[in-house]
Amino acid sequence: MSTIKFILDGREVEAAPGETIWQVANRLGIEIPHLCYSPKPGYRPDGNCRACMVEIEGERVLAASCIRKPAPGMKVQTASERAKTARKLVFELLVADQPPRERAHDPDSRFWQWADRVEVAASRFPKDVRPKPDRSHPAMAVHLDACIQCTLCVRACREVQVNDVIGMAARGHQEKIVFDFDDPMGASTCVACGECVQACPTGALMPATLVDEAGAYTNAPDREVDSVCPYCGVGCQLTYRIRNDRIVAVAGKNGPSNRNRLCVKGRFGFDYVHHPDRLTKPMIRKEGVPKSDVAIDPANPWTHFREATWEEALDRAAEGLRRIRDRDGPGALAGFGSAKGSNEEAYLFQKLVRTGFGSNNVDHCTRLCHASSVAALMEGIGSGAVTAPFMAAEQSDVIIVIGANPTENHPVAATFFKQATKRGAELIVMDPRGQALKRHATHMLQFKPGRDVPMLNAMLNVICEEELYDRQYVQAHTEDFEKLKAHVKDFPPEKMAPLCGIDAETLRTVARKFARAEAGIIFWGMGVSQHTHGTDNARCLIALALITGQTGRPGTGLHPLRGQNNVQGASDAGLIPMVYPDYRSVEDPATRAFFEELWGTKLDPKKGLTVVEIVNAAYDGRIKGLYVMGENPAMSDPDAGHARAGLAKLEHLVVQDIFLTETAKYADVVLPASAWPEKDGTVTNTNRQVQMGRRALPLPGDARQDWWIIQEIARRIGLDWNYTHPRDVFAEMTKAMPSLANITWERLLREDSVTYPCPAPDHPGEAIVFAERFPTPSGRGKLVPASIVPPAEEPDEEYPMVLTTGRQLEHWHTGAMTRRAEVLDLLEPEAVAMLSPLDLRRLGIAPGEKIRVATRRGRIELSARSDGAVPSGLIFIPFCYAEAAANILTNPQLDPYGKIPEFKYCAAKVEKVEAEALAAQ
Amino acid sequence: MSGHDNGAPVAQPTHFEFTPENLERAKKIIAKYPPGRQASAVLPLLHLAQAQHDNWLPRAAMDYVARMLDMAPIRVYEVATFYTMFNLKPVGKYLLQACTTTPCWLRGSDEVVAACERKLGIRMGETTPDGMFTLTEVECLGACVNAPVLWVNDDFYEDLDGPSTERILDALRRGEKPPIGPQIDRQTSAPVGGKTTLLNVKREA
Ligand code: SF4
Ligand code: SF4
Ligand code: FES
Ligand code: FES
């Protein structure tokens, strides 16, 4: 399409196809007032407020420039007397109903700024009756007396975040913004993404932290710092809004993965950094306090620990590690790094273990989330990262989401999926549990827990038998197709239907849809990976994408949704026992020689132990010393009772964290570390986007930077390290990691985000990879058949139900941060187990009653919640609640390839805790 | 809900579903629209639900229609609150909707309203204790030529004044159905007092 030439304020200008008059004017630096229009990505113009009117020659009435597109030769005047007078009148009408500016909810709102510019301060019109405030939501203040009915919040909720909570009810004078059926916001289905608050131009919707009880703006930020969200792998960019060195609010920033959007955790879950439980002093376990005694209140650790100086604590920490290494050899030490720290910290930590401890016993929680996905991807396509970012869903016409609940765990990624369905893409959701995406799905396959392989093999069978595979692609880009084809012959949908619980017709339909899609993409989560057959599950998904040719093009690909904000980066940086940075094997002599040269020391040629193996080895006494940085295995490891016993047996445990976690309670030395908003560093999200996090706050008390602590330990165990800033570390990483080519610290400071691989210093990075060849020895993708392996522990008479674990929207992981974020803990304050309404009735349990859930490994007590999304026979427990840790129950059986435990399936029983028993407690 | 609501919260039933006959009707209505455009059926389905449910729409019915049409509930709420024809709380057996827009007002709608209020002992927006009558105010009903107009359930009573309004209410209370249309000597919308134009035109054979 060609451009449109027209006359704007007397000069000839050109509009791109689809551009509005307002956009052209804005591009050329001509300001036009606007209220109901937001130039932010995702907001369509609505043209309802008339603040943006301009005069068009030959037209009787003024036109709303935000929605009006120019025609060739059109003569537009943006600032004619008539247009200016009319716009001024619009403001005067609106000002009439506003609360007085001295008491405005936001006196600097976009509304008031424009009112100033058009020189309207008062109104001649009478004031209408205004709605009452609604302060029912813990995070957001609703004062519709300032509302101008611009409907930006409706578009925010409905079209940008696709949550469908806000609406414009009634009409005429009665017209009003409502949440659901005019419910108080706090009682509505609002998921507290805060998009509406960010969009509102008047202060009618505000973060509750910025206004006082009467709704006056009393807590204005005094500075802002750009960074990245510390929670999930989506990697939303955000701006911390700070007053007196405390974060008072968070705004979404236009990052490539979030386009100004955030979820409740990123937007409202920031105050954990200021929680009184923060560790601010180095601590040493008191003489004579046994490790078995962990009845410690994190707010008052002085019953079990004593304060120490940094000198003493660091000496003590390092001395213990040195002693064990020199006495029992490098194999007696291990380290857990963190997927919550920066890339630089992860790199330093693995370097410390490899060069200082002398072994490869270093791992982190990737083992517990996507290790099996990575194992299958490495085997199949030679790379463990995603082949396409989740934004690729914008170009897909069939989207599969399997074993993932993105609206809760990757909420901002979910907005892209939901938007895609609005555009007409078909969404196929596969998960034993129902979920919010169900409403947007074309097909919802609630298959039997743990029966992924029969379901996926049946789909592969259909594609092979009906010859729906992409012949050319298979020939050019894959190997072992015949083997796969022969294997899946035995898995016809009719035979698999009773196993997986999905009827044959549906299996055929979805297989055909995906195979025939112009562009199909697969997203998966831990429902796929956290099984003893997790690697097999991922193999099936890889085969599905490869034989249908659904990779390497826009809108296609394989995308395991990574959990932690920096699990991709921490894995890339080498926090994995089998590989050095960039996934290069520790057993490969050439690679080892490279790193020995780079790091100036001999390296251990053997693979190290994984997370669960290390804990087991601690239990057996083979591992005697452990250094844990920012991880919480006492909560996150399967069979946590056993894991805790292992931790208690350690001769020497050093924990570096921001809170006294359940793990830190077993420590000999506790080192108070830095929270994410207190540090400079880079993180890498699920899309392979390396992003810059900036220090926004001073450290509390005596807490120190993590990189500094790691270096101090390194120096004390004989390493000569002299980094002065994370940027020095990043510079070294670029030497060790070819994946970081063309990405520098300075560039990240400038651009905030660069995707790897990146072919040139001015290239944004390659979002979609492997169009030509895969990084495997043959250049082809390997098709690996998967057989049916039942879950390791099936229900039986004694333990008749299936327990599955996971996360909730409001809480992050083991809850160390989110349980200390006021809004989040108010929204989800107590440990709950979700059961089907049917099972609750059968067991005679009322919602809210206390129940006991037991497995062969332990028992916990918590409240029952009725959840229609949970099928009968299943129990779902989020693992974030220390008071009822789900992992006390889970099965530590490992997937043989990825060494990931089966968090998603074990046999359990449920019983009601009788009132007398409760009273007796 | 705002717009319609003035006062106490409404006791909402927890459940709603179409009767088998209405379900059949609903399916036929939905089938009129092209695939993917079922949402267009929202108005007729809400009418059907209201007719089935004592002439008012509980929230459960709106949620039910939303599910049936694959719409977000909020979009159904928006529609239901936009149109005054949907009653969002219980109404009397007879729903009296008095037009008070300018033409009706000039022709005496104040008297019609006053007659209702006096006769029934209720104010605008209220329902009689016996559940017989609900009185509401509406904008122009498009029948100005017969102003003032009172809309009772499915019928218009036209050319009213105070006494004729009272007569109608009395009849309704007795369980009768007074003749609908103009309440003065007038044929539908023909001029009051008989024809004034086209007096000599012969009907063509
Ligand atoms: S916070 Fe998010 S979900 Fe809640 S009403 Fe606003 S936009 Fe909708
Ligand atoms: S609450 Fe704010 S965003 Fe929503 S319509 Fe009112 S002024 Fe606009
Ligand atoms: S900004 Fe254009 S009509 Fe509101
Ligand atoms: S004004 Fe009453 S019907 Fe038109």
What is this structure's SSE topology?
The complex is a heterodimer of chains A (921) and B (205).
Chain A: E1 4-8, E2 11-15, H1 21-27, E3 53-56, E4 63-64, E5 75-77, H2 81-97, H3 110-117, E6 140-142, H4 152-160, E7 166-169, E8 176-179, H5 195-199, E9 205-207, E10 223-228, E11 237-243, E12 246-252, H6 264-268, E13 283-285, E14 305-307, H7 310-328, E15 333-336, H8 343-357, E16 362-363, H9 366-369, H10 371-381, E17 398-402, H11 406-409, H12 411-423, E18 426-430, E19 443-445, H13 452-465, H14 471-477, E20 478-479, H15 481-488, H16 493-500, H17 504-516, E21 520-524, H18 526-529, H19 534-547, E22 557-560, H20 567-572, E23 579-580, E24 584-585, H21 589-599, H22 611-620, E25 625-629, H23 633-636, H24 640-649, E26 652-657, E27 669-672, E28 681-684, E29 689-693, H25 706-716, H26 726-736, H27 745-751, E30 753-755, E31 781-782, E32 801-806, H28 822-827, E33 832-835, H29 837-843, E34 850-855, E35 858-866, E36 874-878, E37 891-894, E38 901-902, E39 906-912, H30 915-920
Parallel strand pairs in A: 1-5, 15-16, 15-25, 17-18, 17-21, 18-19, 20-31, 21-22, 25-26, 26-27, 32-36, 33-35
Antiparallel strand pairs in A: 1-2, 3-4, 3-5, 6-9, 7-8, 10-11, 11-12, 13-14, 13-27, 23-24, 28-29, 29-30, 32-39, 33-36, 34-35, 34-39, 37-38
Helix pairs in contact in A: 7-25, 8-25, 8-26, 10-19, 13-16, 13-17, 13-19, 16-17, 22-24
Chain B: H1 20-31, H2 42-52, H3 59-69, H4 73-82, E1 94-99, H5 102-106, H6 109-120, E2 133-138, E3 150-152, E4 155-158, H7 162-173, E5 181-182
Parallel strand pairs in B: 1-2, 4-5
Antiparallel strand pairs in B: 1-3, 3-4
Helix pairs in contact in B: 2-3, 3-4, 6-7
The complex binds iron/sulfur cluster (2 copies) and FE2/S2 (inorganic) cluster (2 copies).
